Amino acid sequence: MTTAHGVQTGAWLLIAIPALSAAILLLGGKRTDKWGHWLGALVPVGLFVYAVILFFSVKGQSGREINKNYYTWIPVGTFHVDFGILLDPLSMVFVLLITGVGGLIHIYAVGYMAGDPGRRRFFGWFNLFIAAMLLLVLGNNYLSLYVGWEGVGLASYLLIGYYQNRNSAATAAKKAFIMNRVGDVGLSIAIMVMFAYFGTTSFDGVFGAMNGATKGVAAALGFMLLLGACGKSGQFPLQAWLPDAMEGPTPVSALIHAATMVTAGVYLIARSAPIYDHSQAARTAVVVVGAITLLYGCIGGCGQDDLKRVLAYSTVSQIGYMFVAVGLGPGVYAIGIMHLVGHGFFKAALFLSAGSVMHAMNDRIDMRRFGGLAKVMPITYGVFLCGFLAIIGFPLATGFWTKDKIIEAALDKGGTSGWILGLAALLGAGLTAFYMTRALVMTFHGERRWEDDVHPHESPKIMTVPMVILAALSLIGGYLLIFGGAIQHWLTPSVGTSVEEGAHTVSPVVLSLLTLVVVALGIAGAWVAFGMRRVPTVRPVVVSPFTTAARNHLYDDAVDEAVIERPGLWLTRALVYFDNKGVDGVVNGLAAAFGGGSGRLRRLQTGFVRSYALSMLAGAFAVIAVLLAVRFS
Amino acid sequence: MTPTYYLVLSAALFTIGAVGVLVRRNAIVVFMCVELMLNAVNLTLITFSRINGSVDGQVIAFFVMIVAAAEVVIGLAIIMSIFRTRRSASVDDANLLKY
Fold it and tell me: What is the pLDDT of residue B13?
């Protein structure tokens, strides 16, 4: 660790500036309506410039790590929590991604939200989102991470429910918030365990103490952190909120899926690498969760008619890939982070072009009502195509460099589990190609199935320029990241050296070709099913059980309802019944008994002096009788 | 003379007093019966004082007389005022202080 100097001392501004801007926009009221969106968009762009300067400053630092405590945040006896900022390769990657991609999305949102009366409020919350996310990745202890974590949850709640007059949006926001809360319980328990066993929550302190920790503590921490990560990243079994989060405006979806929020879980696990190094069980759980989720997302994505939902499921599955990568352990972390960054590029490009389509189609999002948009919206089509190529792993596009590496790493795990993982990842790649082709074909190709009142048009420049930048990054970003092992070397101080040069189960070239074949099969399948046939404007009713399952997201809502919601409701009702009849019954019964009893006892006070005298006499006789009895017994 | 007679007399007086308190309604009579009980007790005290050859009992008898005298003063005053307000000296009519 080295001390901060120069530009690095101001790192706290990264959090303070967006928070301040959010405060100005939210508290300033209508006065800020005129220029509020420009302020909101300028902030992340400015932060990005500062982050780039910081990046080079950190790069020049020995050890590439700056850990600066600003002040003692919570001083309680011997327990101190410092508010501090950790600038290291891992957090720098996230800061650049959040401010860079986030900034582009902000600029896009200026155009996208142009007609919306609540644009200023929207940008206030957007900035709050950025502030919370930066606090999450920059904090140097788990407690400030937790604050950022909750801040992200709050901001996502506000933004998903942005159209607050729409019932479905309000429900989706609540769903997201509550499912996140389930995960947050895990994270908070993990922090409590750290406090109980290590007496500290700082990254340095906890990781230092891990060597002395028992297996049980390490496993508990690993599992609880995983639960937290699952909630925030929409991983199995807490994935159901993510597709519903599409109720928010499209820039929100892009921000949640590409730059912030869902990446937090991956960050948490990568950051907690020293904990997972001590618990094989927890690490295995991460991989299993990732593998299940990546297939789950793919299957869910195949059955959706809502373009944004398809993209949402693709996020679920891509984050699954990242979980597989960070779960595989030392040497693969960097690949997971690399996929995360690449995913940030192409998912933002895909979402923004989906938003552009929505913009053109009067906010309609049913792909069965699209078709043939390629000619009308050439730029949007181009951007979507770039994102498409990147996500399916078309040669030399981003996904080709990052996703194939994960498949390779999964196979290299070795043994039966390695094969299962590798094949799952490979199958996922094929399915990804299938549903993305389906989305592409249904939206941009084929005949025009528009409703009569829509007149699609290309979006304004303020929207297309960020889209084009992201499209370019989707195509070449992966290559830039991996060129000469750039990102692996950069991340080495944070997550350890990348070991790709070990023994390969399948040689990389063969695997690449195999992946391409699988992807090509997926594309061909989708082309045959949707490109060559007429797409019905109403979804067919008679379909295979597989399609029905995919349409119903593999019944996750039904399962959640049956397993969690219903029993929870029963439990609540039983508790209410017990409270009303049991607890209240005892208390009220006791009170009634005393009340009634004393009411009757009162009747003894007749007011007749002679009856009092009689009772006194009787009492005197009783006392004498007792005395005599005692005396002569 | 054995002290037994005094004790029997005292018990008889006390019983008459107690029964009087319980069965009579006129406040003055009840009052007299109370006095009778007090004096029955006085007689017992003096008898035992005599038997035991100690003056303790007699001293206590004096105290009782003094208390009884004071009580008579207050008691008669109360009976008087009750009679004035309710036009009756019956103890059963003075039954307002109840549940």
Answer: 95
ipTM of the complex as predicted: 0.86
- Three-state DSSP at A118 gives coil
Rounded to whole angstroms, how far apart are CA atoms B89 and B98? Answer: 19
Beta strands in A418-512 (DSSP E): none
Asked if B22's CB is within 8 angstroms of A610's CB, the reply is yes
Residue B94 is given by DSSP the state: -
Q: Other CB atoms closer than 10 Å to residue A582's CB: what's the count?
A: 11
Chain B, nearest residue to A602 by Cα: B99
pLDDT tens column, A549-595:
777 777 777 887 888 888 889 999 999 999 998 899 999 999 999 99
Query: Which whole number is the average pLDDT over A615-629?
Result: 94
Asked if B82 and B27 count as a contact pair (C-beta separation under 8 A), the reply is: yes
Q: Closest approach of chain B CAs to the CA of A603, in angstroms?
A: 6
d(CA A256, CA A341): 14
Q: In Å, how far is A614's CA from the nearest CA of chain B?
A: 7
Give the chain A residue whose CA is nearest to the CA of B30.
A610
Contacts of A608 (CB under 8 A, 6+ apart): B91, B92, B95
Mean pLDDT, chain A, integer: 85
How far A617 CA sits from the closest chain B CA (Å)?
A: 8
Residues of B whose CB is below 8 A from A609: 30, 91-92, 94-95
Compute the C-alpha angle A476/A481/A484, nearest 5°.
110
Q: What is the pLDDT of residues A426-457, one digit of tens each?
A: 888 988 999 899 888 888 887 888 877 777 88
* Facing residue for B97 by CB, picked from A607, A613, A614: A607
Q: Which residues of B touch A603 (CB under 8 A)?
A: 99
User: What number is the average pLDDT over the span A588-607?
Assistant: 90
User: Which residues on adjacent β-strands are paired with residue A84?
Assistant: A69
Q: Which residue pairs, CB below 8 angstroms and at least 24 apart, start in A406-410?
A: A406/A321, A406/A322, A406/A324, A406/A325, A406/A332, A406/A335, A406/A336, A406/A339, A407/A511, A407/A515, A408/A500, A408/A504, A408/A506, A408/A508, A408/A511, A409/A325, A409/A328, A409/A331, A409/A332, A409/A335, A409/A500, A410/A324, A410/A328
pLDDT > 90: percent of chain A:
14
pLDDT mean over A92-108: 90
Residue ranges of chain B whose CB lies within 8 Å of a chain A CB: 18, 21-23, 25, 30, 91-92, 94-99
Q: Determine phi and psi for A78, rounding to 5 degrees.
A: -90, -5
H or E element: which one contains A440?
Answer: helix A415-444
pLDDT of residue A628: 94
